[in-house]
Amino acid sequence: MLAKGSKLLMHSRKEVTETSRRRRGAALAVSALAVAAALAGLGGCSLPLDDIGAVLKTGTIRASTLQQMASLNMDRAAPILLRIYKTESTLEVWKQDRDGRYALLESYPICKFSGKLGPKISEGDRQAPEGFYEITPAQMNPLSREYLAFNIGFPNAFDRALKRTGSVVMVHGGCHSIGCYAMTDRHMDEIYALIGEAFNGGQDKVQLQAFPFRMTAENLAAHADNNPHAAFWAMLKDGSDAFLKEGKPPTVAVCGRRYVFNPATGVTDLDPSAPCPPGVGPDLVAEDAQAAKSNLITASSADPAPVQRTTLTAHRRTLRVASVQKRVRLPPKAHTRHWQRVRVAAVDGQLPRRVSTPAPPDPTSELFFRPR
Asked: Which residues are catalytic?
């Protein structure tokens, strides 16, 4: 009887031990899944893991693209440059022609990018970066789980000067992304091949310019109001303009926590966090929105076709029609009879003979006045 009781006790202890092991195993599995999920979020759109066992891919350039190169007087192995526009969801490939200038070779729709307009600030914010980056052969990944991929090089010297963090920020295939720029596999196949052939032709690094939108004065003005990134975008426009003016990638440096484009010959070893040397660039913090407003006003005034708009300045009691530069003095007193709706034509400047200001003033193209 005693022996039988001992056997039952031992069996019971084994069951308890096995149950404890199972519970610990389940807890470890849950912890592992949680860690993997956290790493996936921190890593952005693509974990730094290769698709082990996959066939090595190098991409393919389509016959139509080769014909386009021939028509634009470009060598197949000539250097290239990439430009990204978030609002337009477009990735452009520019290529050097035989005269040494870069021309647009092909545009590809971006399948998906996450976040909103503005730069990437920190690890895990799921924001696609904006700025000027460099791609080297070491950043190319032919074994990506997202078909093909390359690391854009975030954070660069400018990002690090502003304490921005992040890693494994890619342009890749797969058409799904968290924090990167995702293309379709078909488009990524050709983009990857174009970069690879440029490297094989002797280009040591490919410049990638990532913008929130096409960098025009109108777009800057449209997005500038109360936007903390206005000065940053104005700075990006300087780099975009330098490229379009010179027809080649600008030399990009960083000092005073800002980008400096095409610095003077002999200027080297700039400190990204220290003030810029005299004559190189102002010491401008990238998020200084107030400083951006003056840049935007200057850029807008230099446009060949100024934007027409009608404005009302109540305290001066003066109605301005900008397109005809015509000024009409308003009567000093307002009567209280019926309101009359008057359409102000900004094209020809036709106005009623007598008008008085409404309250409150409404700076639009349709204003309301009371007749005497």
From this structure: 172, 180
* pLDDT for residue 178: 80
Query: Which region among 39-43, 210-214, 362-366 has the lowest average model confidence (pLDDT)?
Result: 39-43
What does the pLDDT average to over 203-227? 95
Largest CA distance in the chain: 120
Q: Crossing angle of helices 230-246/289-301, nearest 10°?
A: 40
CA distances from 59 to 109, 276, 278, 372 (A): 18, 42, 46, 75
Beta partners for 91?
Answer: 84, 108
Residue 284 one-letter amino acid: L
pLDDT tens digits, residue range 304-317?
Answer: 444 333 333 333 33
List, in order, residues 6 or more apart from 229 with CB less than 8 Å away.
117, 118, 119, 212, 287, 289
Within 10 angstroms of residue 180's Cβ, the number of other Cβ atoms is: 28
- What domains sit in the chain, N to C, each tagged with a CATH number? 42-212 (2.40.440.10), 215-307 (no CATH), 308-372 (no CATH)
Backbone angles phi, psi at 180, to 5 degrees: -130, -175
Contact 283, 275 (CB under 8 A): yes
Q: What contacts 46, CB < 8 A, 6 or more positions away?
A: 144, 145, 146, 149, 168, 170, 172, 177, 180
- Gap between the Cα atoms of 297 and 212, Å rounded: 19
- Between 346 and 185, whose confidence is greater? 185
280-316 as b/e, with b when 16 or more CB fall inside 10 Å? bbeebebbebebbbebbeebeeeeeeeeeebebeeee
Q: How confident is the model at residue 341 (pLDDT cuts 50, 70, 90)?
A: very low
Structure token digits, residue 150: 């390359």
Least confident of 154-168, 333-347, 349-363: 333-347
How far apart are the C-alpha atoms of 211 and 188, rounded to whole Å? Answer: 19
With a threshold of 0.70, does the pTM exceed it? Answer: no
Helix, strand, coil % in the chain, rounded to nearest 5: 30, 20, 50
- Strand locations in the chain (E): 80-85, 90-96, 102-109, 112-113, 131-135, 140-141, 149-151, 170-172, 181-182, 206-211, 252-255, 258-261, 310-313, 318-321, 326-329, 340-343, 366-369
* φ, ψ at 162 (rounded to 5°): -100, 15
